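Why this split exists: single-chain examples teach little about how molecules sit against one another. For that reason, every record in the complexes split bundles all components of an assembly together and asks for one structure covering all of them. Below is a record exactly as it appears in the raw files.
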Amino acid sequence: MKKFEFFNPVRVIFGPGEFDRLGALTAMYGRRALLVTSKSPLEKMGVHEKAVELMRSAGLEVFELGGVEPNPKLSSVYEGIRICREKQVEVVIAIGGGSPIDCAKAIAVGAADSGDVWDFFTQKRSAVKALPVGAVSTLAATGAEMSVHCVISNEKTKQKYATHYEFNLPKFAIIDTELHKTVPRRLTACGLVDTITHAGENYFAGEKNTPVTDRIAEGLILTILENDGILNDLQNVEMRDNIAWAATLAINGLTDCGRGIYEYGAHMIEHAISGLFDVVHGEGLAIVHPAWLYYRCEREPRKFVQFAERVFGVPKQYGSEAEVGEKGITELKNRYKAWGLPTSLRQIGIEQVSYEEIADRVVQDPDSFIKDKSIVHRVLELCLK
Amino acid sequence: MKKFEFFNPVRVIFGPGEFDRLGALTAMYGRRALLVTSKSPLEKMGVHEKAVELMRSAGLEVFELGGVEPNPKLSSVYEGIRICREKQVEVVIAIGGGSPIDCAKAIAVGAADSGDVWDFFTQKRSAVKALPVGAVSTLAATGAEMSVHCVISNEKTKQKYATHYEFNLPKFAIIDTELHKTVPRRLTACGLVDTITHAGENYFAGEKNTPVTDRIAEGLILTILENDGILNDLQNVEMRDNIAWAATLAINGLTDCGRGIYEYGAHMIEHAISGLFDVVHGEGLAIVHPAWLYYRCEREPRKFVQFAERVFGVPKQYGSEAEVGEKGITELKNRYKAWGLPTSLRQIGIEQVSYEEIADRVVQDPDSFIKDKSIVHRVLELCLK
């Protein structure tokens, strides 16, 4: 293993009914709260209203920023910061999937600073603090509720960039799977892909002798595969629980420990694509992550043999290292197809004519370790495999 | 899964050479530090002296409590508290395995209170705060560096009792495996058993639908089994790294999430035994934990089939659920034998005449869920299996 630090002080509160604790938890961090929400079936079910009620009952003054979009936009972040400054907000609460949570994180950083928050995403400046954030996760997908990551799309420049500040970790994360039951099939499937991609991104990169980290990543991926029955039984709280906890742990730092690298290659390319074309993140990953894995397997197949064996039971006798490794990736891709997701760029209307622009975006992303456009081109070709 | 909270804000700093950061890290929590150490080969190697130097260079005033014994004694805790009060210590640092770390935790709780610290172990009173603790772990075993647990032996009453305060979690844990290389073979083997027992204690109890938690526990146990080559290659830092990270994660809360129970039956019985006879904790567990598992498997074999299959590759066709389950436990016990550890009470000189006294101790422990002495008798019989 390589040297690492692991620090994740998020208080996770997991279980059906735990949403009711939102007021008391929020009150620990301030009296004036901004509630960030997105358009979702929860709105119609009165969940947002109930959140306001819970917080008011705990003595809080509540301000609202609603309707945050998937791939949350910089304009929403600016609007949230404006409210925070005007109303002297002390704590930012998000309810939803990764979009409102990431939006809340960016608002919390921006509101604690006097300049332009986008500077932190372009890495022009580094942030030093943030307002406290609390998250109610209503979707098993991005793991934003327990991660340092925050991804925002600048709709003017079509850049989708990320920050990773430790002080931006939520103070608490409520994971109440009663609230997950309304997530529709397609979005649930996207969440499964997102989780597998998070557990898988660094698995094949950097230091190879990381048995604990490998076993954890494999265990999370196996849990997702073994609970994909959720797609035909959307109200099943047991399976919702299982995929939710896997999603949270997949990107809280545990799956990276000791690898000595922070690569996230598929995410870099997917961010460029969804920055340009506003693709749903999970669908973008269903296309790009297997292609990214084929690309890596072409170069260094050994670790893919372990993955193919342990996750898909591909026997060593299946063929050469490259063949066994590739078989594992194809099994994963077939699973995505079975879930009804696109696995080729063409299926979402992106043609070869856009590849050069995507490659440009990837190498320009200040967060990206890919600095050679030919790598992006090769991965995009493999998206057609 | 059952409802749960997961909160573990320990900053883990993992890697060879990271010991050098002790001074700067300690200085974040105070200017007057108590250094708690045990007798170990590290002392001769000058590690304790270097710790003092590192802390002094960071501007700290350092007081010392050395020579803490295995199964740390209440008298050492009292002595530490006395120093803290007299010298107005602000932060307590431990270097070593579980013994000095647990001793430091108890001192930190006692020094922040004006009464008798033993009250917290007998559950006469509850503690509400503690001085900050920092840990340098020099042994892969108890996981004390990232756990809420603190176990102290009262040498007068022969009680070995535990506390589990969230605010007693270390602020930081340095895991520098360069310092692990001097751990002798027998103690290294004891550490492997301790880790497996931590990952295994709740695995078979409570809620059965906990796939993420199961996979993590199995992954940690597999890592230990696959790295037991350390016993013939004590200086191997790669294997030291692997078993150290497994040991830390086995008892940081992750292996209990969603089980809805906190059982630790083997620990309850082992604590009674080592309270009475001052047995090395890992050796006690090598005897008691398999017996505890046989006891549970007699009653509810199903989960043992999963364990036997996934950890030891016992095929389902091996026999009935009970037979497959028992085979898994026997494989584990055989591994302990191969490591040269005792697996029967007789081997450590404890005869049947003591069973009633052990059973008495178990049911009197305020922390123990076992309130029926016949359970203890049955488990002690199974120690001879």
